[in-house]
User: Fold this.
Amino acid sequence: MHELGVVIEVVRTVLDFAERNGVTRIETVVLQMGELSSMVPKYIEDCYPAAVYGTKMQDTTLRIEILPGNALCGACGKVFNLLRNAGGCPACGSEEWELLGGKEFMIKEIAAR
Amino acid sequence: MDAFKILEIKKSVYEGNDARAKSLRAELGRDKVFLLNLMSSPGSGKTTTILRTIEALEAEMRIGILEADIDSDVDARAVAKTGTRVIQLHSGGMCHLDAEMTRQGLAGLGTEGIDLVILENIGNLICTAEFDTGATKNAMILSVPEGDDKPLKYPVMFSMVDVLLVNKIDAMEFFDFDLEALRERVLRLNPKVRIIPISAKTGEGMDQWADWMRAAVRHCKES
Assistant:
């Protein structure tokens, strides 16, 4: 349910982009999702067909790229993955860090003509 | 036949809604209508708090209420009894309201001559926090029975609100609820938030809440 709302927003944005750029046929939609975003890729895929049903995107394929949830350690400067290191720097153990990415939820590109 | 080509979009999914919310907020500012987005879990006392807020403020300002629910109109009926202008929005299964739905709700309500609109968002601590409704300010209610650990579980909500009402404090003695621990957890996420403990049932703390609303509405009129 949570995902359906955002997928409908994706469809709205892509259709709008297609219209403004004279795109007549869309084949693939590529999304980028961060590991730390609140979205579950599987659920996005599951509700995609319902969101595109009856639109110009009905026959499109969805592809999802996952972006890593990385942080920069404030103590030693190491870049590390937050999920795989339970929120602490694997080099020095510090829990003071700056988030570099992983919360994104982007429409990256479409394959179209 | 042309070959398929790759067209880069590179747009955040939230961007469309964020832009619509921003322009709605600007319009409300021009019209001097203060819109409060009130969020919480189901059963935390949103409707009762709204009824008490109406009682406290109706003599000094004109109030409208947008009731958002997945289904039913029980909340709107409760508000309508007070004689306040109210409209029920059905989200049709969707777990949050976005800026477009809020705009339609405001158009349905009619904001002509209204000073304060309270949007009772859908009872949900997750999705409602991720979609900007275009409201002037955002408030949430956490009720004592829900527990003081909720900021740890739903950090997005607690970090985006301007006010946190801690409701049902009259029931504090029956629950393991540590107000200081809550305060510390919330302030770590959101140092600027105003925390007001209330009981919509007994009226405790409602004066502070009404004062906050008064100041916020006045600020909207004067800016």
User: Anything to note?
Assistant: The beta strands of chain A are 26-34, 61-67, 70-73, 79-81, 97-99, 105-112. The first strand of chain A starts at residue 26 and ends at 34. Residues 2-68+102-112 of chain A form a domain with the hypothetical protein PF0899 fold fold (CATH 3.30.2320.50). Residues 2-20 of chain A form the longest helix (19 residues).
